[in-house]
Amino acid sequence: MRIIFSKDSFRFKWSYEYVNYMEYSNGKRIQVSIPLQNRVKYLSNAELLEFLENGTGILYFGYNTCPWCRNIVPILIDTILKNQIDTLYYVDVHEDLSDIQDELYEYLDSYLSTNEEGEKGLAVPDVYFIQKGKVVGHHLGTVDSYRDPYLGMTEEQKQELSNIYQNLYEEMKS
Predict the structure, then answer these.
(1) How far apart are CA 77 and CA 4, in angstroms?
(2) pLDDT below 50 — which residues of the chain?
(3) With 0-12 CB in 10 A as exposed, 13-18 as middle and 19+ as buried, what is 44?
(4) Cys staple from 69: which of 26, 30, 62, 153, with CB 3.0 to 4.6 Å?
(5) Domains with residue ranges and CATH for the chain
(6) In angstroms, rounded to a whole number, what is the distance separating the alpha carbons of residues 150 and 145?
């Protein structure tokens, strides 16, 4: 068995698992376990724009303390590993995206969420399946029946989300 991990893989694992020890304001914790061979690559702003223009792969926007993100990450990584996908491209939305925001929002325009003031923006967790610079699949959030990220997903909800990711990956491959 070939183990694939990098500085980014370790950084991602550490970033998400470190939060296991922190309580949210409601006193709850959301435990996650991230494999070291998670194949995550953090994208810089320049790399993100290049990937959106020409890349092929799965792109995940999220952040480590987001309760919704913490629930999808193990399922998303399982999809990567199960399909032997080389890389999961990751953008931590808490990093400064201001210098590329216009280009980013132009590219993702039809997928962005709109707030009460009518302004568009990224919502998380947000997963894109991209082939040669074109979005061929997109999934925002978890599953419709999942309402409280502090309770954890049922096995049925996890399977439903896994199926969504798998189907979008199959679309990307074709």
Answers:
(1) 13
(2) 1
(3) exposed
(4) 62
(5) 7-173 (3.40.30.10)
(6) 14
